[in-house]
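Let's do one together. I've listed all components of the complex below, 820 residues spread over two lines.
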Amino acid sequence: MTNPLLSIQDLSIVLPSSGDRAYAVERLSLDIAENEIVCLVGESGSGKSMTAHAILGLLPPRVTIDARSRVVLEGTDLTKLDDAAMRKLRGERISMVFQEPMSALNPLQRIGAQVAEALQLHNTAGLSATAIEERCIAIIDAVGLPSPRQIVRSYPFQLSGGQRQRVMIAMALLNNPRLLLADEPTTALDVTTQRQILDLIQTLQAERKMGVLFITHDFGVVADIADRVVVMRHGRVVEQGTRDAVLRHPQHEYTQALIAAVPGRHARSTALSGKTAEPLLKIEQLRKTFVSKSGLFSPPRTVVAADGIDLSIQEGETVSVVGESGSGKSTLGRMVMRLIEPDSGTITFAGQPVLGQDAAALRAYRKQVQIIFQDPFASLNPRQKVGDAIARGPMIYGASRADALKAAAALLERVGLGASAVNRFPHEFSGGQRQRISIARALALKPRLLIADEAVSALDVSIQSQVLALLAELKAELGLTMMFITHDLRVAAEISNSVVVMQKGRIVERGAPGQLFANPQHAYTRTLLGAMPGLDFFEHKLAA
Amino acid sequence: MKAIVQSFLRHPSGMLGLVILLAVIALALTAPIFFPGDPWDTVAAPFTPPQTDGMLLGSDSLGRDIASGIAHGTRVSLMIGVISTFVALVIGVVVGALSGYVGGRVGEWLMRFTELFQTIPAFMLCILLVAILEPSIRTVVIAIALVSWPQVARLTRGEFLALKEREFVQAARCQGESPLSLIVRYILPNALSPIIVAGSLAVASAILIESALSFMGLGDPNLMSWGFMIGSARTMLRQAWWMSFFPGLAILLTVLAINLVGEGLNDVLNPRISRQ
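Okay, and this is what the predicted structure of the assembly comes out as:
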């Protein structure tokens, strides 16, 4: 720590006057030494991404760095450099890996050409074309991609999300940077892929003795890879220190609250007692295959989303459906809602068959089963007042507008928003508040079964724990039955009586959370559990 | 809504267009006051140049007042532009909404039917329709509407295809909303911005088509219109430039104004641009 690789002193980022606060980042100071991973942790809007962009000189228009700020990389103050000097620096001494591997690559260019570009731009050694290609293949090999010679000739769409993120890392490392900035590089990935990428970054960092600034919102990830931790809130550093100091003995109350909010602490180990004979929801041999025509002469592509699913949910039970993307868990929820029609199989709700109902029966059914979607920004009509969104449901089933609006106000009060929200539009609310509105909308019809499709996945951890607590309260109050679809094992452990693990359209294991986590039977469940970030550190939270 | 109006008021070219457009509308409304006579009446010697004998913009080959012709022509142009666009929007939105919402085979066939209209050169079809149906203001409106609806239909279909998969529409379906209610309450209001923009630009192109039809002598023979004035002046372009210049200027300004307003609306209604 005597001579830091990067030293940020008093960094203030000034927002344009129309913004909701004057500074995106205020008087931030941190050092990154060689061969060190520093995790910058914070919730959305804390200014962590802005910090990374400021280091690279890539701030959005009209956002400026305060004159007193210093960003010193190996003796050079980056805030004093002109554009040309910054361009030379980027991708050579500092490089960056972004969150979205899907949109960070040019879809129309082969991988090889895109990787080579980073080398050509900084080609001071005058490498020949074949030498450049050899270096590209070598780096793609180094990030653990299979058959690199084939990869360089592929287009981005032919690679999976994890493979693309490896390509992004390869591009970032091509010029042997001294400093790597990684902005939530694993957030868009599945938990098993995330584990591989985290391992890769750690290995490469140790090999090359790089400094890494790793931006994340996930304390599990922090526990796994950080050497030191910097916690940010509203643009300010609230706490920094070594990993063990911050995680085990957090000083600031905000850090304490964040760590406490990591779900999975209140795992229920018991399954529901006193089983009734007839389950509320019974799914048998459900099958669904998606077929998409790719062209006139090429064979259609098929994706199996449900491959003979059997699942029953008792009245009053909360069942979590856990799986990675593409496992078919969301399709399952939508088939129960009859938003997607299954190919074959049966769904029985309270003794009545659900599939093949006529329009009137379907309406009666939907009154009893409601769904909450993942994206709080997409699941509310932007041109409909919140009160109307909630009141529409009861009005369709015959309630008068006045009664329905009165009930909507009471519900909004119940989910913690206040009755005045009735006359406001969705864009006036934050993500967590919108998710409360979605919950109120679903509950307005007094359903018996509530399907939550990744209902808390898009929320910050502190908001997530509040919404989870609200759902648990409402469930107890109203005697709801819940089907909770999630990719997050910790969330599943926290909320459910029973956990179902799905893989490629099949249910591979079912059990009470405590039992499932303590003693997983299926290999896939073990892989999922092993890939969970921060497992060692947070293990005591999951232990039943 | 208030925010949209405010940001439009701050849009320079959109406001310029709006000011010109309002002037054009004012001219149309006040035509009977400032030019009370019939624009077809002879009021001066033929070929009177502008600013002589009390003729503001001169007179034409039969001694008719050009200024009066332009003022009364404004009413014809705006009326045809607005009514034909309205008809085109109604047809286009209904076809596009059905095709996008119902999808499947019905949607495909509706689009094939739309393409049928798009493959025929629009102006040729217009000439043909007006020639067969006899020129009158009604047939001109019908002809223009029939060639303008396919773009609206395609646009509406695209919006509907994207919006019906959105989660708030799915949530409304789960609430038990009927298909009609889904379309009218949830999808259409969110698809409206691009349709409004397309509609405003369609008014401009309808005015151009009407002028071109009148130029060819296929306009309503009882109504003075800009295209007719230019058409009748074309042989005397060198002797009496004002006869075609001023109606041409009227067309240019009106179409430009409507296009500017359309562009302005596009910027204002597109959240990605207006939020910056």
